[in-house]
């Protein structure tokens, strides 16, 4: 078969394939649209791959119609050699088209269209943002809550809010203008018997995480209600997708930074559910989240009481030390420190001996860990040494290597 020589200027410098939708960047270099958009938006680059000049992600990519026609003509001429003609790209989405779609939100198919557009490419996401589609989706979600009815389009509305990246600076005003959004999402998470319930609730949890991380955090966190945490406990207990579960834990971790919220979280049963999750030996990131939540909740007396009421709590926290990550070691040691210092009854201290907490703390002293963490481990060991020094479970030789008693 005759080898085909492709003109060099038909080739995308990134993909090294014939360009299907050539666009020229502000640096003057032409690329295939899909390749340069992936370079800029998916890979988060800010320079031109060829010239190495600055190429802002919001800069225009101008369609090179002349080059596209040349490529199409060349493909037609070489069709007998097996070259397929490149179809003319669809005209790019514009704001006017989106605004027309927004007038028909009473039709479920409109939400489906908007979701497909958001999934298609970054250019569409930008256009949807400019047409204030996220605001329209939030209003729709709140309306479902107001009339107490799950309407067709809710899943797509939540999905669109995941795909369209709202700038961080816009979130506080968006949440402030639509302050019922937290109650609306709580309502969604409470609903049973919804179509695609797991997917809907997972999307709602991911949106909650975004609102708390990017909205006016103090404004949002100070308005959380006991019902919110009761709902989150049900989510932890019954489960959603892995991504949704991670989002739920992120939300609870952010909320636990407030003393007011800690009280409500403890009363709702968060401590028990978080320990139960950890007993299931989850992945590293989940363990980091659960231990961080336990650390905050054990800062209050009720939290420690709930922690100690779970027969597997001390054991599972102890087991995680030196097994997962430095972040987990930090939180686990400090949880044990608070329990030993403020709730260190004889029964509790004997339990710590029984499950190997003292042995693990001695291992921390020998491990390559930060000085402050070793100091905290030593503090726990020394504080109650008179209680456990005579116990056969106490690692006397390891302890004596550091401090004689």
Automatic annotation (TrEMBL):
Pathway noted in the entry: Protein modification; protein ubiquitination
An example Gene Ontology molecular-function term: ubiquitin protein ligase activity
The reaction(s) this protein catalyses: S-ubiquitinyl-[E2 ubiquitin-conjugating enzyme]-L-cysteine + [acceptor protein]-L-lysine = [E2 ubiquitin-conjugating enzyme]-L-cysteine + N(6)-ubiquitinyl-[acceptor protein]-L-lysine
Keywords, alphabetical: Transferase, Ubl conjugation pathway
Assigned EC number: 2.3.2.27
Ranges for domain U-box: 5-81
Its job: Functions as an E3 ubiquitin ligase.
Protein name: U-box domain-containing protein
